[in-house]
Design a protein that fits this description.
The complex is a heterodimer of chains A (304) and B (370). Chain A is mainly alpha-helical. Chain A is 73% helix and 4% strand. Chain A is built from eleven helices and four strands. In chain A, strand 2 and strand 3 form a beta hairpin. The mean pLDDT of chain A is 89. Chain B is an alpha/beta fold and 370 residues long. Chain B has two domains: 27-144 and 280-343, 3-Layer(aba) Sandwich (Rossmann fold), CATH 3.40.50; 147-272, Response regulator (Rossmann fold), CATH 3.40.50.2300. Chain B has helices at 2-26, 41-60, 80-92, 104-107, 110-117, 129-133, 146-159, 173-188, 207-215, 227-239, 256-261, 283-293, 301-318, 323-331, and strands spanning 27-34, 68-75, 97-100, 121-123, 139-141, 164-169, 192-198, 220-223, 245-248, 269-272, 336-338, 341-343, 357-362, 365-368. In chain B, the strands form three sheets. In chain B, strands 7-6-8-9-10-13-14 form a seven-stranded mixed beta sheet, sandwiched between helices. In chain B, helix 3 packs parallel to helix 5 and helix 7 (146-159) packs across helix 8. Chain B is elongated, with a radius of gyration of 24 Å. The termini of chain B are far apart. Mean pLDDT of chain B is 87; it is low at 16-24. Classes of the chains: A mainly alpha (304), B alpha/beta (370). At the A-B interface, helix 1, helix 9 and helix 10 of A face strand 7, helix 9, helix 10 and helix 11 of B.
């Protein structure tokens, strides 16, 4: 492989990995933007999404087959199902805590994460499940660079979901309400906005995106397990912070940048691939030193 | 009256000594040390069953030189402290020899206890290289140690004409050891190690690593860690067009690897301890085992069965139940053919030749590589 081939291939790798990070990071950043909660259960929502997708696919594949039709249907159904799970979690665990100190709701989020994680662990006996779909490895190769159709579809799906989200936030009344609530909740309430309802919608959308990423990960990597949400939760949170937490374009950008940093971090000469995380997180620290709000974050003035 | 009483007591005592001596003449006491409780209990039970099966077969043939074998099981629970207690129990039971040993960590402290009592012990699963260095002279390992796996691996690579090798591990003790040993043995055999990579546990995307590996164009990739992450690495290697040899260590010896990696796993090589399903000579043993215990033999059943038979063979050759004589006979083992292959010991009392078998993935199963 020539150097140019390596760079192009790593670029493709980074974009694919980054798409996953972006989708999960969006949920972090939306929830943070609206209720200032670092929802640590978000990585586990992604994992639950993968498992729900797994169960739905086993039914759907009987009707629509396990090709793209079945996968798209599975993804849509899982997004709806997990969206509602997100809403239920918000209703039971977070809503009663909204007026409590921020630390309490943060700890609640940790508890939700533990519950989801252990629940799936006990249901699946901690076993790896093979996520089998009928997709081949066909793709296009340009010299030594090789990209499968599956990879192209996944990146395009991410782009489509992000475009829909962008339109939703900027062109609909709910989107407008979300943006308003993130600025001043009390004023919104006085203006007659049903704040709780909008928060619920935010959770629905964030969880649905995580579920989409979870199903996509299952399809792409071919195996799912109860632990899969941990690493990506951590990385997606990093991506959200990198892009500026609370900023939706920031989360998209942060995810892609983190994905690229990791894949190029693997390629640093003389040191092994085990340093890629050191490289990626090192850049994060540097970024936060020079721009504490992240790439696209706004400076927040905290009024006491 | 008092005199009569003491005479009675002395007589009773004498009788007991005599009866003990009488028993000693037609019985051989063998200690079985395996974990029968705790997290490793299933493996311990599999081993104990295999040993008991061997004992019942030997006794059915009239025992060893007219002596029947009786067994005492001591539970080491895979815990060093409990293992020490179990060993002391077997020593106080005055066993002639001990067979068993699953967890290397738990077995380690017992070697000195048996050594001090001069009791020979045949280890049928525990295989840490530390056991070799801690051996007081009475310990015999019938399972190959970690460096033997590296040798088996390097032999396969040589045979397949591999010149450049890439090794991937996960940074934990087990997989890193195997990776480093393979690196060492590979270099000695003239194989160039073009990459030594580490993968984080639980990471799903290895595409960047795959690209890095491909850029170094290795003839073979050796994954030394466990099946779950290994399956993902294999899948992504194949997905990205790496079509050369892939091998995995014994931690990946699970049909789950094929389930997760799907058709990408086809033709992947795996190194494994000799388990019953891959041993043509263990067919009868497998059937008898199933008949007697109504379950499949476990991963170390074959070796445990061999260990007990080896011990019986050595006692027969020693011609006495004397512990030192048994140790000497074990050391002199020459043409013992177990179901898992022949057993010959090095001066350090470990297997002279590796008993690792090479498997190859065919469809959803591992098959013996021919």
């Amino acid at each position: 492989m020539s150097n140019l081939d390596i760079i192009l291939q790593q670029l493709a790798n980074g974009l694919i990995l980054g798409s996953f990070y972006s989708l999960v990071a969006l949920g972090y950043t939306m929830v943070y933007g609206i209720i200032k909660l670092l929802n640590f259960a978000h990585g586990d929502i992604y994992m639950v999404g993968a498992f729900i997708g797994f169960s739905i696919l086993s039914v759907v594949s009987g009707i629509l087959g396990d090709g793209w039709t079945g996968i798209v249907a599975t993804m849509a159904l899982s997004m709806i199902a997990v969206g509602f799970i997100g809403v239920i979690i918000q209703r039971i665990a977070y809503r009663p805590m909204l007026q409590a100190p921020r630390l309490s709701i943060l700890i609640t989020a940790l508890a939700v994460s533990l519950i989801l994680y252990n629940l799936v662990m006990s249901i699946t006996d901690g076993e790896f499940k093979a996520f089998t779909v009928g997709l081949g490895y066909e793709g296009i190769s340009m010299g030594e660079v090789y990209i499968t159709f599956t990879q192209m579809v996944l990146v395009s799906a991410t782009a489509v979901l992000m475009t829909i989200l962008h339109l939703f936030i900027n062109k609909t009344m709910y989107g407008k309400a979300m943006r308003a609530i993130s600025i001043d909740q009390d004023a919104c309430r006085l203006m007659g906005i049903d704040v709780n309802r909008v928060i619920a919608v935010t959770f629905f959308v964030g969880s649905a995106l995580a579920a989409a990423a979870g199903v996509m990960a299952g399809v792409y990597y071919g195996s799912i397990h109860f632990f899969m949400g941990f690493v990506i939760g951590l990385k997606a949170f990093t991506a959200a912070v990198m892009g500026g937490i609370g900023s939706i374009p920031g989360a998209m950008l942060g995810g892609l940048i983190l994905g690229l940093l990791e894949s190029f971090g693997t390629q640093i000469p003389f040191i092994g691939s085990e340093w890629k995380d050191v490289f990626a997180f090192g850049i994060l620290i540097l970024l936060l030193v020079f721009k504490p709000t992240g790439l696209l974050g706004r400076t927040e003035i905290e009024r006491m | 009256m008092r005199k009569v009483f003491s005479v009675c007591l002395i007589l009773a005592g004498l009788f007991m000594v005599m009866s003990n001596a009488a028993f000693a003449t037609d019985e051989l006491k063998i200690g079985i040390m395996v974990p029968t409780t705790g997290s490793e209990a299933t493996y311990g039970k599999d081993m104990e069953n295999a040993i008991l099966l061997a004992v019942s077969e030997i006794n059915a043939k009239g025992g060893i030189a007219g002596k029947t074998i009786v067994t005492v099981t001591a539970d080491d629970a895979c815990d060093p402290q409990q293992a020490a207690a179990a060993a002391s129990k077997l020593v106080s039971e005055n066993v002639n020899a001990v067979v068993g040993g699953y967890c290397s960590g738990a077995t380690l402290p017992t070697l000195k206890i048996y050594g001090d009592a001069g009791i020979p012990i045949v280890l049928t699963a525990a295989n840490s290289t530390k056991l070799v260095s801690a051996n007081p002279g009475n310990t015999f390992l019938v399972n190959s140690t970690g460096d033997d796996q590296a040798i088996t691996a390097v032999n396969l690579f040589k045979q397949k004409g591999v010149k450049k090798l890439a090794v991937i591990h996960q940074g934990d003790g087990y997989s890193e050891d195997l990776a480093k040993l393979t690196e060492k043995k590979g270099k000695e055999a003239g194989i160039e190690i073009v990459a030594m990579e580490v993968v984080n546990k639980g990471e799903q995307d290895h595409s960047a690593l795959v690209t890095r590996l491909k850029s170094k164009s290795p003839d073979a990739v050796f994954w030394t860690a466990y099946y779950a992450d290994g399956a993902l690495v294999i899948k992504q290697l194949r997905q990205n067009g790496y079509m050369k040899l892939i091998a995995v260590g014994d931690g990946s010896n699970s049909p789950k690897l094929m389930e997760i990696a799907g058709k990408a796993a086809e033709g992947v090589f795996c190194f494994s301890n000799p388990t019953v399903e891959y041993l043509p000579s263990a067919k009868a043993f497998g059937e008898n085992y199933k008949k007697k215990f109504n379950q499949e033999p476990g991963p170390y059943s074959a070796l445990s069965y061999d260990g007990m038979n080896l011990l019986a063979d050595a006692i027969k050759r020693a011609g006495s139940a004397d512990k030192a004589a048994i140790v000497k006979a074990l050391k002199a083992t020459k043409d013992f053919n177990g179901i898992a292959g022949p057993i010959v010991f090095t001066p350090e009392n470990k297997l002279a030749r590796s008993n690792f078998v090479v498997l190859v993935a065919k469809g959803a199963n591992w098959e013996l590589n021919k």
